[in-house]
Amino acid sequence: MRRAVCPGSFDPVTNGHLDIVGRAAKLFDEVVVATGLNMSKNRLFTPDERIAMLEEATVGIPNVRVSGFDGLIVDFCREIDAVAIVKGLRGAGDYEYELPMAQMNSHLTDVETVFLPGAVGNAFVSSSLIKEVAALGGDVSGLVPESVREALVRRLAERRS
Ligand code: PNS
Known about the structure:
Layout: E1 3-8, H1 15-27, E2 30-35, H2 47-57, E3 64-68, H3 73-80, E4 84-89, H4 92-108, E5 112-117, H5 127-135, H6 146-160
Parallel strand pairs: 1-2, 1-4, 2-3, 4-5
The structure holds 4'-phosphopantetheine.
């Protein structure tokens, strides 16, 4: 059984993330989508909400499961016996951000990082931009699952009231 982890903040999950998770699931026996904490980012959704959204979005992929994790991603990989971390790259900016993390993770452990090129159509899709556009009244349908779009609209309305 070769298991991989797709880690991220997923605040919220986008169709770009789901493309990478679906493709990783074709390469590995099992993929664990793991929501962690990026200390430098502001959260819109709680860890439980992010997990629930991921579970709903990946329900159709039998070899994908969802988990939260605390601490180092490499420790989580060791705990669940995962051999690889899979990340999507939309472009050079992602590569600059991801490469030092991959190298640090490789320094800390023997877990490999596998980069998959993001689909061209998702090149501009990020959780941060989704939140910004939705907060300012823009339409994000087609870029996130419909249930995520609805959750975004609800949460942003709560924040405004
Ligand atoms: O959505 P993001 O910002 O790409 O997610 C980044 C995340 C959460 C995957 C990354 O920050 C992470 O792995 N955090 C766990 C703590 C850790 O292992 N830090 C050292 C990374 S080299």
